[in-house]
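To: structure desk
From: M.T.
Subject: fold request, one chain
Message: Could you run this one when you get a chance? Sequence is below, nothing fancy, just the single chain.
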Amino acid sequence: MYALSMIFLFVACYAFIGWIAEVLYVLVRERSLQNRGFLTGPFVPIYGFGAIAMILLVVPNFHNIFVIFIACVIITSTLEFTTHLVLDKAFHITLWDYSDRRLNLQGRICLENSLLFGILGLLLIYVLHPAFVALLVAIPHDVSIAFAWTLVGILIVDMANSVRSLAKLRPVLKEFSGTLAQTHDRIEHGVIQLEDSIGRSRSVGSHADLATHADLATLGRLAKAFPRARSSKAGAEQNPTPAA
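Reply: Done. Structure tokens follow.
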């Protein structure tokens, strides 16, 4: 069993590696550099938590490569589905949507991605993690602990800031339909009107005063990182529930 500081270090480092993987994927596919992920910093927490779940739950208990693959698929798919559901219900945003892919579940996960994450899980367990552990052994224990807590501190502050911004923007995201980019532009326009004519346009200001420039920056960053991201209301309007 790993010490708590090492678990934190694994989460932070694999979240960083996941961010690199996302950036490279978009660079190859779209020929553009984008700060991918939910956070401001170079971390994608879902990769960190998925990696540590596989390290703690799969590695000690399974030895057959096929069973390990299935376990990785189940763990990563559950984590992706849960993350999507929480963002949808808590903040009214949909960052990704697999509805146009075959064999998807509510657009939150799809077989294609789940199988890919299973393969990445095998790469983690058999190649990446053993090499990473061997590297940590060469680092003085006190240094690795200090590094772990520093990374975790940065990660926690970044996550708290992003969650706080989305929580403040939640009423707007609940009311407006459209992509996050469109919602960002609407709020930004409201802020400009509010600053130019204080008290004269409360219909705009009532939403604008909910958001600081930092909150708008968070929304704008998410809109750039996930160009197809939208408010959940937009998704409900585009895919209405069939009548019984």
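Reply (cont.): The chain has one domain: 4-231. Let me know if you need anything else for the meeting.
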